[in-house]
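Feature request, filed as a ticket because there's no other form

It would be nice if the structure record came with a short human-readable summary line next to the C-alpha cells. Right now we just get the raw output. Example of a typical job, pasted below so the devs can see what we mean:
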Amino acid sequence: MMFPVVRELADDGVPVAVTCRVLKLCRQQYYRWLDEPFTNAELDEAWLANAIFDAHRDDPEFGYRFLADEVRAAGWDASDRTVWRIASENGWWCRFGKPRRNRKAASPATAAHDDLVRRQFAAAGPNQVWLADLTEHRTDEGKLYVCAIKDLWSNRIVGWAISDRMKARLVVAALETAVARRGDVAGCVFHTDRGSQFRARKVHRCLVRHRMVGSMGNVGTAADNAAMESFFSLLQKNVLDRQRWATRDELRLAIVTWIERTYHHRRRQAALGRLTPNEYEMIMTPQTADAA
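Raw output as currently delivered:
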C-alpha cells in the first residue's frame, strides 16, 4: 500500500495532490484510508504472522503447537489457538500432517513495505535511495555475516555491520552507522529484499525513528535488488573467495580494508563516469548544493 508513503511525504511538506498525481493514486481513497488506517491489532497480527512463517520455514515439520512454542520463545504473547488460526489461513501445514484437499501452497513472506524502487537503480542526489543486503561466509571459527548499505547516488557503502550471528540487530547496527555518517536522511528510501531480518520490528522502528521510508522487492527475484547484489558479487570475488579464512577477525579486517581502501578509493565505475565513489561524491556534492 502506497498511502503510508503519501502521509510521510505530507509530513515533510510535499502536497498530497502532487504525491498522488505522481504515484497515480486517488486522493479521495487516501483521505478515507487516513480516517481509518490499519488498527494496532491488525499490525500486531501481521508481525506475528511473519514470526510464525519464519519458524515454519526453518522447521517445516513443526505442527502449530511447536510453532506456538517457537514464537513465544521469541517474545510473542500468542496462544496455541491463535497460531493455529494464522497458520491455517495461510496454509502453513506440518510436512508430516494429513493431506488436505484444496490445500494452498505456503505463502511467501509478507512484505512490510511496497516496492518503491521498481528496478530503477538511479538517484538524483545523496541520501535519496539506499540499498541493503546480507551475505555470509565461512571461516575455520564459524560463519561471519555482513550487512552493507549502499547509497544509490554514488554507489558508496555508507554503512555496514559484521557479526557472528545473522539477527535483526545486525541490520539496525548498519543503519545506525550509515545515519551517523550521512546526517539528515529524512525521506530516504531504504530498499531491501524480504528477508526476515529486514522485516523485523527492530528495523521498522529504526526507520521510523530516522524518518526513512521502507521498500522491499518481490520474493525470489534477485533483480529487484540487483545493484546491491553486484556489490556482494565483487566482495565475493575480491575478498571472500580469495583464500581460506582462519578466524572471523581476519576476515572482518579484510572486508573493511577492501571496502575503504579499494572499493571507495581505487575501483573506478562506468556508472560514475569512470570515477571512484569517493571521487564522485567530492566532485558532485558542490554541484548538487549549488543546484539546490
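Something like this underneath would help us a lot:
Residues 3-35 form one domain.
The first helix runs from residue 3 to 11.
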